[in-house]
Write a structure and sequence with these properties.
Strand content: 15-25%
Number of helices: 19
Number of domains: 5
Length: 701
């Protein structure tokens, strides 16, 4: 009976206990869902968000350091090229070289060996790269008789200063170094030699010590080939070159890209956070790297702290408020750090959203454009960042660099910007898209005021103008005295004396031509080309100009022909400017046409698609022609095609630049057709508007 009673009560008690467990489970689930789950979800969301912000901040800090290091190297290189060119321009050095005293000229550079720029030794070479003099040359290098052909090609391309890649010298120590090459100006505008200033690679490593890098940060500068100087593992006191061209960040920076990424560093054998930045204008690269553990130390420490707090939430729900405040405080600290970096950048920085509206701008941009952050936020970029062309006309929105950045492209440009108060200033702009989750969420615009650079360029042009004016007076006087001597006004001269005097007269004429061309170029560049607009019979004007150069054609045996329309053509134009066009084109045609060739001058009425009724002037020759490779550069200042230079034809490379500039002032058109070895035809179209002077904006009337 007892057994029967037990067996009857067992299932009932088991069911109650089961129900009790179920109720307890439901309660626990309810409590977890009502109290713990929301806190847990909030904690997870907060942790992920904060982790991302901290990671972005770490990357931004690396990029900021890389930008600073790149700017420092660019500034150093700018200083070195400017100083080297200044040394090359030194009058004492040029005087010694003119007299053939190369060694004495090298001694004038000794004062620069002990300055802070790192110059270790100097070479002076002729225009073929042959070393003519050495100063403070390291032992073991005296067997070097000529500089590298690649260096010679680079510096002679435009005769501008050039900084080489890292190389090792030929001494037994084989020390890494770089060289700065600068042309030494000659008296006729052609360089008389090249100054080579050698700088030890140790100086480059020394430059990085002036940057506040932070813990375990390392700055690496590489040349155009991806090489950098490092200390040898076997000989810690000795510098050697390491090839980092296969290192991903170096390759990206040499391709003119910038960014931050986590990569494996073959030099240290560990993962590094590497920020890369190109050194604009010089082709070098800047890499700032830091071990992952150090780079993400802030993130890791914060993450550990948050995980600890979140673990305590499960046990102590009363600490929820503390956890929220702690999380928010951390976020605010990160935001403050990001804001500090944002506001500390020396260039104007503007952030826009995907609709090109202003999101934020730093204090430099506020000062640059005259807009406060509060007033600018939310406004369209064209309202705040008003860009204009040289004539004060607003640039259309679709031509602004912001739209290319919002399409995912990096853009560098230069515009004239208008401040809020109406004043204008030139600035270069770099537009970079903001890529988040593989999508463009906006753009970052970096503005740099280039007023001082433009003023320097203007000062250089004014110097050329003044120098040319000062040269014109003595060469004109020399021409007068030579004419008197040749005419026998000072007594009879022998045949040999006449031969030399005629050579001097010819050389002086070339000098006058060069000075006049330089004067015209400087007047055009400065916008002060003086001219008087008046009605002109173009046909009669051309006949006079053709007769003026006919003796030149006759001396060369070139046939000079004229083909004019029967119509009377009147233009309101400056005879002085028109003479520049006509004389340059006809004299060029005669100069570059061999004997027994033909030059034909034509004048006719024309109907142009853009200009309407117009005047067509052309000059056709059967001369050397223009090579295909030179056609895109033929109107550039000082440019001369290789074929005429090799044939020894005289010229300054300024005539066609002047013609093109004057045609632009007239709002006309100029083009040419040419085939090498067969000849060239130049065409000029002038707009025709009876009774209305042509718009010569930019010409001082």
């Amino acid at each position: 009976m007892a057994n029967s009673s037990w067996s009857g009560s067992s299932p009932t008690n088991g069911t109650e206990r089961h129900d009790e467990h179920r109720r307890l489970f439901r309660m626990r689930v309810l409590v977890f869902g009502a109290i713990v789950a929301p806190v847990l979800l909030l904690s997870i969301f907060s942790y992920i968000s904060l982790d991302r912000r901290l990671e972005q901040f770490s990357f931004l800090r690396r990029q900021a350091v890389a930008y600073l290091a790149s700017s420092m190297l660019r500034s150093r290189f700018d200083d070195l090229t400017m100083l080297t060119q200044t040394m090359a321009n030194d009058s004492s050095l040029r005087t010694d070289l003119n007299a053939g005293r190369w060694s004495e000229g090298a001694e004038t550079l000794r004062v620069h060996l002990d300055d802070d720029n790192g110059f270790s030794h100097f070479y002076l070479t002729d225009l073929q790269g042959n070393i003519k003099a050495r100063l403070n040359e390291p032992p073991g290098e005296k067997n070097v008789e000529k500089i590298d052909e690649e260096w010679l090609t680079a510096v002679s391309r435009n005769w501008n200063p050039f900084i080489t890649d890292l190389v090792t010298d030929s001494s037994p120590l084989r020390r890494p170094e770089i060289a700065v090459l600068a042309p030494i100006p000659g008296g006729t505008g052609q360089p008389m030699g090249i100054l080579v200033a050698q700088i030890s690679a140790g100086a480059i490593l020394g430059w990085t010590k002036t940057i506040d890098l932070g813990p375990q940060n390392t700055v690496i500068y590489t040349d155009r080939r991806g090489r950098t100087p490092i200390y040898s593992a076997r000989e810690p006191e000795r510098l050697v070159l390491a090839d980092l061209s296969v290192f991903g960040p170096v390759d990206q920076a040499l391709r003119l890209n910038r960014g931050v990424e986590v990569v494996f560093d073959p030099m240290t054998g560990q993962e590094q956070v590497a920020a890369y930045e190109p050194v604009v204008r010089y082709g070098w690269a800047t890499i700032v790297k830091q071990p992952v553990s150090a780079a993400f130390s802030v993130r890791n420490s914060e993450s550990f702290f948050l995980l600890t707090v979140y673990a305590l939430i499960f046990v102590f729900n009363l600490m929820l408020a503390f956890l929220v405040i702690s999380g928010l405080s951390t976020v605010m600290r990160v935001q403050r750090r990001e804001r500090t970096v944002f506001e500390s950048i020396g260039d104007g920085l503007v952030v826009l959203d995907r609709r090109a509206r202003i999101v934020d701008l730093n204090p430099t941009a506020e000062s640059m454009f005259g807009w406060s952050r509060h007033d600018a936020r939310g406004k369209d970029f064209a309202q705040v960042l008003a860009a204009q062309d040289d004539h004060g006309k607003n640039i259309p929105r679709e031509q602004r660099s912001i739209w290319q950045a919002l399409s995912g492209n990096h853009v560098n440009a230069k515009f004239i910007f208008q401040r809020r108060d109406g004043t204008r200033f030139p600035a270069s702009v770099t537009a970079t898209p903001m890529l988040i989750d593989d999508g463009v969420s906006g753009a970052v615009m970096v503005y740099r005021d280039v007023t001082k650079e433009d003023e320097l360029d203007k000062a250089k042009k004014e110097f050329i103008s003044i120098a040319s004016h000062q040269l014109l007076t003595p060469v004109s006087a020399v021409k007068g005295f030579l004419s008197l001597l040749l005419d026998g006004d000072f007594g009879p001269i022998s045949g040999k004396q006449r031969e030399y005097l005629e050579k001097l007269y010819h050389l002086n004429e070339r000098m006058i031509e060069l000075v006049e061309d330089l004067l015209n170029v400087s007047r055009i560049d400065l916008g002060v080309f003086e001219a008087v607009v008046e009605p002109l019979d173009v046909k009669e004007f051309l006949k006079v100009e053709v007769e003026a150069v006919r003796p030149l054609a006759a001396n060369k045996g070139v046939s000079l022909n004229e083909e004019y329309t029967t119509e009377d053509i009147k233009l309101k134009v400056s005879p002085k400017l028109l003479r520049n066009i006509v004389q340059n084109l006809i004299s060029n045609a005669i100069k570059y046409t061999p004997g027994s060739g033909h030059v034909t001058v034509r004048l006719a009425m024309s109907e142009d698609h853009d200009l309407g009724k117009s005047v067509l002037f052309s000059v056709k020759d059967t001369g050397f022609g223009i090579p295909d490779a030179a056609k895109s550069k033929i109107f550039q200042k000082f440019y001369r095609a290789d074929n005429v230079r090799m044939m020894g034809a005289e010229g300054t490379g300024l005539g066609l630049y002047i013609v093109k500039s004057v045609m632009n002032l007239f709002h006309g058109k100029i083009w040419f057709e040419s085939e090498e070895g067969k000849g060239t035809t130049f065409y000029c179209v002038f707009p025709l508007d009876a009774g209305t002077p042509m718009d010569t904006k930019g010409v001082k009337k």
